[in-house]
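Chapter summary example.
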Amino acid sequence: MSGLTRRSVAALLALQLAPLAALPAADAVEQPTVPRAWPWKSGTHKLMVDGVERTFVLDVPTQLKPGAALVMVFHGYGESPQAIRRYAGFTPLVEKYGFVAVYPQGTRDGDGYSCFNVGYDFQKNMKADDAKFARELAAQLVHDLDLDPFSVFATGCSNGGDMCYFLARQPKSFVNSIASVAGCMLVAWTNGFAPSTHTSVMEVHGTCDKTTPWEGDLANHDGCGAYLGTDAVMKLWVKGLSLEKSETTELSEGASPKQSKILLHRWWTTTDSAEMRLYEVQGGRHVWPKNLGDKNRSTAAEIWSFFEPHRPRIDRNSKIEPFFGIAHDFLSELSQIF
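The structure predicted for these 338 residues follows.
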């Protein structure tokens, strides 16, 4: 195990085992704390991946603490990290809850539109390996900002939502949980589909979405490649995660006057912490909704409240909850990168 791996694991254990440490002696003199100088600040930055300069935007809390979580926020087709940073609303939550948010920039397709390469039919000539970019970006930030490698989350809208599913279905996914807004899964991704037991999934989807229809596009009318409908995506993950319990709740208020109600479908299991949530926005279109039924709580806040409970826990014997290889594989790759 490399020095980096030891530092990453040690930081994680130190953070989570701190409450178990002995109290200082009564006569100990408390030393003043000096704020740590982190190598990355909020703003726009660049990272070399496969010899290509890639761009990303960071939101780092002013009082960043070791072991914080990382939330990766992926923009939609033809958009920018600045755009989704503006409308998604994670920036104030970064300060409130202390996590780091990163907004990667996609690359341009043959028509000049910025996007993430997830294997659409029209992306066959794109050379960018965006799954690798996301992994190496996360690895860099986990290392440099002393973040929790077990708490890397992904969210995004449209093509960015598809990117979340694309990362989560990788053989050795480094993401803990995902939250897709108006996203979908290509039929091609179902081949050999075997998700990690601890991957939790949240989807927000409008029933009147004309860009990524609720019913899917099995006939490939739009040229992206055949993709599943929202119900089919949920069924795929429910089966893959072996979730045996479910419930549906009608939320009290719609996200906008045009949306009469929102149905929250939830699946879970009693054997581990994995769960799924589908927010069915009735009458909703291809947008990131401002809220999901509570006008005083943003969609971004709902997403973070979904992510946060899935951070690894310490049991009574002070052992990290088994993560079935996700973070351990990620740590192994970290040692190879640095």
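To summarize the output: Residues 1-28, 314-328 have pLDDT under 50 and may be disordered.
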